[in-house]
Amino acid sequence: MVSGKRFIEDNDSMREAIITPRQGNILQISVPMAPPLRQVNSYLLKDTEGAVTIIDPGPHTLETELAWEGTLDKLDLTWSKVKQIVVTHHHPDHYGLAGWMQSRSDCKVWMSERAHAEALLMWGRNSSMNEELPLFFFRHGMPEHVTDEIKEHHERFAPQVIPQPEVSYITPSVPFKMGDHMWQPILTGGHAPGHLSFYHSESGYMICGDAVLPQISPNVSLLPGTDPQPLMTFLQGLRELSSYPVSLAFPGHREPFAAFAERINSLLDHHEERLDAAEALLVEGPLSGFAICEALFHGRISSIHQMRFAMSEALAHMVELVRRERAILTESEGCLYFAAAE
Q: What is the CA radius of gyration of the chain?
């Protein structure tokens, strides 16, 4: 493990990324980000000619700019050596720096076509998500003073994805070269539509972004204008990923881990338990999505950031219960409610 000096600017401490050599000549670059996660894993793969692939560069902030400048300096690399950026999914902590890096290296930025569409839906020039998301939550019972904070929260992500890159598309299942090896792209969703993981069959390595995380359960969100059944999609993706014999998984957060199939099984069990808990709340009568969210995450929501993702996840579970005919969705005076199935 290699750690470096701290950059100081305007009396604010700028953390340098932590560089950790991993198996298969993969460098894990732990890039700083805001709490609660505090860091995101980028991965750097170099081929025999010295050309570099960077996977998931992190969010765009002054801190991450400085962290990457320091990382390249420590590795004795220039921006001209960065030949491609690969993005597993569109969330700012994975996608955000891609455009900034492209402007310095003139490299290609690769992601799935669906993931790019999601980035434009959330932050594109014609995006209306900062208006639609608060309204969506309001219809599901969230008080207006909270939806006002949701709008402000969403708008705070915009600087983390500017400038947006020119994107080339990875075709799922068609081998894709990163470093000196060909990797199989695997398209799943649920956590993020169009999410790509990358599998190297000879070593059994899986670069899995946020599709499977150790210790953390990836957020599964129902959002307006995108996948209407994200939990179903997520569970299907987990089952597909479990079919690969993985020796070591490289996640987007926390440390690389073995026991990949066992971790997937625990996530599958977790969501079935959450579905049971959500269904049990309906015994006393219909509830709004917001009331269900507060009950499911009671005592665990301490910020608007957590509220946004808890609300989206509660709704993802409720629409899955409706799909399974274990609940019904009703409407009264413009507001939506979930009720026990008859």
A: 20
